[in-house]
Design goal:
By secondary structure, the protein is mainly alpha-helical. The protein is about 70% helix and about 0% strand. It is built from 37 helices and 2 strands. Strands 1-2 form a two-stranded antiparallel sheet. The radius of gyration is 35 Å and the shape is globular. The N terminus is likely disordered.
């Protein structure tokens, strides 16, 4: 055939008629493209599909094993609980998290079993004391006769007793209040609390029906066994089927963090080159205005916003999210038992290096902001001075600017190359980028050779080679020398008079000089400030990357990566884990994606009780412990527990009334109260949003269940096999949309409730399965009935969350911003304390005391920084959920709150960069490039600056208290004034800031620290203005101005 080589994708398609043109595309190609787009949109790759199937496997196994006669005889009518509990264990979590949750689930089930026995005993005593001796004897005789004949008493035939029902109702209210309050207090206990509530909601209503202790213990034993069996199935699947360790997750996150760092820096370099190619940095302000930014660049160029960095912002958002996950995941990875090379201390060191790199990327991102501020400042200066004459010609000005920006454009690319190659070297040595077996053996062979044999590799200094680190150190030193030489040469190209050779960094910063300040800096001084800022970023970056590369080099050369060993947590790590399980100050997110109040209660920063002095004896200590319980009962968490108890009793009351208790059991209303335990939300915005999502998830699960049943015509084997696929769709929500994980969890529960009942009826038969009082319904009635029960439970939880006295997301957002400002004040004070400590160390002989204090302060500083990032993420959640709250009255100032949150994040980044800058400054002071009078003056000046007041932290604490309490600011609340160097310079050399010292590293570090202080003051001024718009200010001047 002539066209035999062209084979259609669909074989049954008829051949074209003679002369008819063959279509260029087949029918399957659009379908393939649509499926590929859907596949990419859902994010389905092999690991995701495996996790989806793994998450749906435990409930599938729970339904399958019930088909064994021995298992059915053991569980009887509570066998459906096995797949339900197995589905709620979320076996797709990493190993350490999963083991911790399973231990807590088991402990909560043991507590629920004990409390249920206590409740059953109390109910039984109430029943016996409300009946006469003859009536009790008659009931016991009937039960004994039924047991001797082998008959099983139907639950609906058991006598009702109001006293037992009241006692059980009181116990149910107490348990729901306590479990929900603890869950709100410690949100990582979400699933243990849910397990406890499910057990209690099943056990207590049934306990009120049983007239004998034997029936109570037998029923509770079966329920407990069903729970533990579900735990066992999930535990085995989680550890044996596609196991995922927390160490693997942490290594993946570290690798992804380093790769995103490389990507972000390359995007920044490309963006700076783009600005230079567009002429934004070269052809700026001239005196006459002929070459100003307003005229040389077209209006269309500014309308396109050449400063926009959308790609960089997207990458930065990914990097920020990954950084917030890194700390908690590394903590879990340190608790695992593993067989590997990287120990828990190594992971902690790597996490510290990651934090420094994150601060570096923050500083690099501020370079474009600095350039934009410089351009705008000069544009405004040109607009004010247009029409005036200057001595300097336009061509000379353009030449100066071109020389300055050429330094940036060329050296920034080299800086990015240094960072990129060093990160690649670290990934290779630590084997984080999953090298092939041949590459691993080659690296181990090269680094295991002795010093004489290493010379054979001296010709190759590429990343991953033994000689790379020495070459990297030489390259960094050469880079820094060229930077200083470039600054010196640039300084000689601009003719500055003597008054311009020295200036005050604190006041002469672009856009900060006012009429009261000194003479504003000239354009050349502004360019110098920008170059010094960039130089400081380069110094921080090279120092941080050398630390990371040296860590990888030492780890490899010490032989730590050559042989794997057993790694197990130390006793101290286990103690910290045990304390962390019940702590209220955890940084990790719960799997259910539930929001919570934002707290700051760490052991290092306990706030004093303004109403009580510290306890002095055992009696006062006992009273302090009791007072904590008293405060807990009156807290917002306790209020949420009370609303959860009310929501539960709105439905569960049917189980304790004589006219409705049969209906409660017959129609399986118990699952409406169970869904309340899963759906109860701490805030109103999340509750409104969750109501729609949970109902829609339950509707989809019901539809999937009906499809699942009728596709195989109700055959039990087909139902179980096909349910694995449909339940994996619910697991996709938990994996890909963790903030709405409750939707997937309710979908799983709805699916298992319907099919679990049906398969149980198929195995036991209708007569035996109905002994529990639940009548048999076909799937087309049972599925809508279960959907109605779940919807009723979600609606009850929604009502009792929203209306009685709810915690609003807007109030949590406001108080959370106040907490964030308080942490920021602590962070600033910690940086200042480290600065003071290092200054004292230069005159102190107690080295050990210094090391211990410095280590503790550094640990606190890192903890505060991680806490600040975690709170910022929670604030974003509350900011998004507050849109779902009903708006009564005036509009919510959403823009102002977003501005405050954004400013706090900027202040956090600037203060973190300031801490690294101070470290570089102190390192430069300790190892001066030259010993001179100038160096001694810099040391003296730093000590004088250390004597400044704490006005910055004071303002932050005032703003924090105003936001948390909602009270107005004090009169005339402003940002702290800049530190006036004149007073210090009167005792020192007035020529200390002369540009002739620009080649010294101390000059650059001190200048950068002063610029950062000026930037933080500017941001603090914006913060004060925004907070004043929200809470107001005490001002009665309007009453006298008449």
């Amino acid at each position: 055939m002539e066209n035999g080589s062209e084979v259609s994708d669909i074989e049954y398609r008829p051949a074209p008629n003679p002369g008819e043109q063959k279509p260029s595309t087949t029918i399957m190609q659009p379908l393939r493209s649509q499926l590929s787009a859907l596949w990419a949109f859902l994010g389905l790759d092999l690991p995701t599909v495996l996790m989806m199937l793994k998450g749906a496997l435990p409930p599938t196994l729970g339904m399958a094993i019930y088909q064994a006669t021995s298992v059915a005889d053991t569980f009887q009518t509570v066998g459906y609980l096995v797949p339900i509990i197995a589905s709620l264990c979320i076996c797709i979590m990493p190993r350490a998290r999963f083991v911790e949750m399973m231990l807590l689930n088991t402990a909560s089930t043991a507590l629920a079993y004990a409390f249920s026995l206590l409740c059953g005993y109390c109910a039984l005593q109430a029943r016996w004391h409300s009946l006469s001796a003859g009536e009790n004897a008659a009931v016991n005789e009937e039960l004994a006769a039924a047991a001797s004949s082998g008959a099983i008493a139907n639950l609906k035939e058991l006598p009702y007793n109001s006293s037992a029902a009241v006692v059980c109702a009181i116990w149910l209210i107490f348990h729901m209040w306590l479990s929900t309050a603890i869950r709100a207090r410690r949100r990582h206990l979400f699933f243990p609390s849910v397990m406890f509530c499910i057990y209690i909601n099943i056990a207590i209503p049934y306990t009120s029906f049983f007239p004998s202790w034997g029936l109570i213990t037998t029923f509770l034993h079966r329920v407990t066994l069903a729970f533990l069996t579900g735990y066992s199935l999930a535990f085995l699947v989680g550890l044996l089927i596609v196991p995922v360790s927390c160490r693997l997750v942490a290594f993946k996150e570290i690798t992804g963090f380093l790769q995103l760092t490389r990507k972000t820096l390359k995007q920044q370099a490309s963006h700076i080159h783009k600005l230079k190619s567009l002429g934004v940095l070269d052809d700026r302000t001239s005196v006459s205005g002929s070459n100003s930014a307003l005229t040389s660049l077209s209006t269309e160029m500014f309308t396109q916003d050449v400063w926009s960095t959308s790609d960089t912002k997207k990458t930065w958002a990914q990097l920020e999210t990954l950084h917030s996950k890194l700390g908690p995941d590394v903590c879990y990875a340190q608790r695992e038992v593993a067989f590997g090379c990287i120990t828990a201390n190594d992971m902690e060191t790597m996490c510290e290096r990651m934090q420094e790199l994150f601060i570096l990327v923050t500083g690099v991102g501020n370079i474009v902001t600095m350039l934009r501020r410089l351009v705008r400042s000069e544009g405004q200066e040109a607009a004010q001075s247009r029409g005036t004459s200057r001595e300097k010609k336009d061509g000379e000005e353009e030449k100066e600017i071109e020389d300055a920006m050429k330094i940036l454009d060329t050296t920034f690319n080299e800086f990015v190359e240094i960072i990129d190659s060093a990160i690649n070297h670290s990934l290779l040595l630590l084997e984080l980028n999953e090298p092939s077996r041949k590459e691993q053996l080659n690296i181990r062979k090269q680094f295991s050779a002795d010093t004489s044999r290493i010379e054979a590799y001296s010709g190759d200094s590429s990343p991953g080679k033994p000689q790379y680190f020495n070459a990297l150190e030489r390259r960094v030193a050469s880079f820094q020398n060229r930077r200083m030489t470039s600054l010196e040469s640039w300084k000689t190209t601009i003719p500055l008079d003597q008054t311009q050779m020295t200036f005050d960094f604190a006041t002469q910063f672009p856009t900060l000089a006012s009429a009261e300040d000194k003479t504003p800096p000239t354009r050349a001084q502004q360019e110098l400030l920008a170059l010094l800022w960039i130089e400081n970023i380069f110094n921080i970056g090279t120092t941080s990357i050398l630390k990371l590369a040296k860590f990888a080099e030492d780890k490899r050369r010490s032989g730590g990566m050559d042989k794997k060993t057993f790694i197990y947590p130390t006793l101290q790590v286990l103690k910290e884990w045990l304390f962390d399980c019940f702590s209220t100050d955890r940084d990790d997110q719960n799997v259910a994606g539930e929001t919570s109040s934002i707290r700051f209660a760490d052991s290092d920063f306990q706030r004093r009780d303004p109403e009580h002095l510290p306890p002095r004896n055992w009696y006062e200590k006992v009273g302090t412990a009791l007072r904590h319980w008293y405060y807990f009962i009156g807290s917002d968490d306790s209020s949420l527990g009370l609303w959860a108890a009310c929501a539960t009793m709105t439905i569960a009351i049917l189980a304790f009334l004589k006219n409705t208790h049969i209906f409660f059991i017959n129609q399986r209303v118990v699952w409406a109260s169970v869904s309340i335990a899963i759906s109860m939300s701490p805030t109103s915005g999340f509750s409104v949003f969750g109501l729609f999502g949970r109902v829609m998830g339950s509707v989809l699960a019901t539809v999937f269940t009906i499809i699942n049943y009728y596709m195989i015509n109700g055959h039990t084997g087909g139902i179980i096999a096909l349910s694995w696929f449909f339940m994996s769709l619910d697991t996709w929500i938990i994996i890909k949309v963790p903030r709405q994980a409750v939707i997937g969890i309710l979908g799983l529960v709805t699916h298992v409730i319907i099919l679990g009942y049906l398969t149980q009826y198929h195995k036991l038969g209708v007569e035996l399965a109905s002994v529990s009082g639940q009548e048999f319904y076909p799937v087309y009635i049972l599925a809508p009935q279960r959907l109605l029960a779940v919807t009723a439970g979600c609606s009850s939880a929604f009502f009792w969350t929203l209306f009685p006295g709810t915690v609003r997301d807007r109030s949590v957002l406001r108080k959370g911003l106040g907490t964030s400002l308080y942490i920021l004040a602590n962070y600033y004070s910690c940086i200042k304390a480290i600065f003071q400590l290092k200054l004292k160390d230069s005159d102190s002989d107690s080295a050990q005391l210094f090391l211990r204090s410095n280590e503790r302060l550094t640990k606190i500083r890192r903890h505060l920084y991680i806490k600040q990032i975690t709170i910022a993420e929670r604030l974003n959640e509350h900011s998004s959920f507050q849109n779902w709250e009903p708006n009564l009255g005036g509009r919510f100032p959403h823009k102002t709150y977003n501005n405050i949150s954004h400013t706090i994040q900027k202040l956090s980044g600037h203060l973190a960069l300031l801490s690294l800058t101070i470290q570089n400054l102190m390192s430069s002071i300790d190892t001066p490039s030259e010993s001179s009078v100038w160096h001694d003056d810099v040391v003296s000046l730093c000590k004088m600056l250390d004597m400044t007041d704490h006005s910055f932290a004071n303002i932050l604490c005032i703003l924090s208290a105003a936001l948390e309490s909602g009270q107005s600011l004090p009169p005339n609340t402003t940002e702290p004034p800049p530190y006036q160097l004149d007073h210090a310079l009167t005792q020192l050399d007035h020529d200390i800031f002369n540009l002739k010292h620009i080649v010294n590293s101390e000059y650059c570090a001190f200048a950068a620290s002063q610029m950062l202080s000026a930037i933080t003051r500017e941001d603090l001024s914006k913060l004060v203005s925004d907070v004043r718009l929200i809470v107001g200010e005490i001002d009665f001047s309007a009453a006298v101005d008449f």
